[in-house]
Automatic annotation (TrEMBL):
Gene3D superfamilies: Ribonuclease Z/Hydroxyacylglutathione hydrolase-like, Winged helix-like DNA-binding domain superfamily/Winged helix DNA-binding domain. PANTHER family: ENDORIBONUCLEASE LACTB2. InterPro entries: LACTB2_WH (IPR041516), Metallo-B-lactamas (IPR001279), RibonucZ/Hydroxyglut_hydro (IPR036866), Sec-metab_biosynth-thioest (IPR050662), WH-like_DNA-bd_sf (IPR036388). The lineage of its organism: Bacteria, Pseudomonadati, Pseudomonadota, Alphaproteobacteria, Sphingomonadales. This is Glyoxylase, beta-lactamase superfamily II. Residues 36-208 form the Metallo-beta-lactamase domain. SUPFAM superfamilies: Metallo-hydrolase/oxidoreductase.
Length: 296
């Protein structure tokens, strides 16, 4: 997990990434959001869409207003409903009259450690996009790519005119995603990575971190990383039963203590996946390999 780059960060600035895409960084940096959530304005001249409007922060909303300028906002599009991604949708819709389009609503109690990323209970979309459905505007098409795993309602959006993919939190430019059960699901997350690996997107624009210029290489590395973590878990369990928290100091050496809870939840997501596949079992909080999987 990389640390943030040196300040100053371009918070509040509209950065032109390509002819159809501008990026605006929200003022919400944290150990879980890196330098903050990145909102994207897609389209120029005639109408635009705002992807992941971010937190309901007055400073960020003013920055989005400046980035949008006099353009008509055709849609406000959310990849998922964590509180650092979707809460600005409602006030931005009130300002612009634009519909909220994208992921389905999801209201759950977040059992994980991410107070900044618990579920947004105010999110009310005007239109939910299923996998493969699109929102169009003047000179742009954003097609939904269902990518559950980080959360069950996660979507990516493919900008068909340029080959860019807005990846939300599914693929980030600075760290792997946290998968927090019960809504986060490791098997779904891995399947979604495989789905992206089969695509031919030119570049990824994540909600956190820099643009990813070699998408398939990045995804291949993420799949390998998760398989490595899975193998680590099984090796440690060969030595004896463990609780999920016991894996963290063994597997995440040097990790910022503030991130230990997130690491524990990702380990738990792996353990649940391994349990479903019949490789491990649990008794209360204690996990162990099944007798048939233990080495003699």
């Amino acid at each position: 997990m990389a640390g943030p780059p040196p300040k100053p960060w371009p918070t509040g600035e509209a950065q032109q990434l390509e002819p159809l895409v501008r990026r605006v960084l929200a003022p919400n940096p944290s150990p879980y959001t890196y330098t903050g959530t990145q909102s994207y304005v897609v389209g120029i001249g005639g109408g635009c869409a705002v992807v992941d409007p971010g937190p309901d922060d007055p400073e960020h909303l003013l920055a989005l207003d400046a980035a949008i300028g006099d353009e008509h906002v055709c849609a406000i599009m959310c990849t998922h409903t964590h509180r650092d991604h979707s809460p600005a949708a409602r006030p931005l819709a009130a300002r612009t009259g634009a519909p909220i389009v994208g992921c389905a609503p999801l209201v759950l109690d977040d059992s994980g450690p991410r107070a900044d990323a618990s579920f947004d209970r105010t999110y009310e979309p005007d239109r939910v996009l299923a996998d493969g459905e699109a929102m169009t505007g003047p000179g742009w098409t954003l097609r939904a790519v269902a990518t559950p795993g980080h959360v069950s309602n996660h979507l990516c959006f493919a900008l068909e005119e340029s080959g860019a993919l807005f990846t939300g939190d599914h693929v980030m430019g600075w760290s792997t995603s946290v998968v927090v059960p019960p809504d986060g699901d490791m098997a779904d997350y891995m399947a979604s990575l495989e789905k992206l690996y089969a695509r031919e997107d030119r570049v990824y624009y994540p909600a956190h971190g820099e643009a990813i210029e070699k998408p398939r290489q990045m995804v291949r590395g993420m799949i390998g990383h998760r398989r490595q973590r899975e193998n680590q878990i099984l090796r440690h369990l060969q030595e004896g039963p463990l609780e999920a928290k016991d894996f963290v100091p063994r597997m995440y050496k040097g990790l910022d203590a503030r991130l230990h809870g997130a690491a524990k939840m990702s380990v738990t997501a792996h353990l649940i996946d391994l349990e479903r596949r019949g490789l491990v079992q649990r008794s209360g909080e204690v996990w162990q390999t099944k007798p048939s999987t233990q080495t003699p």
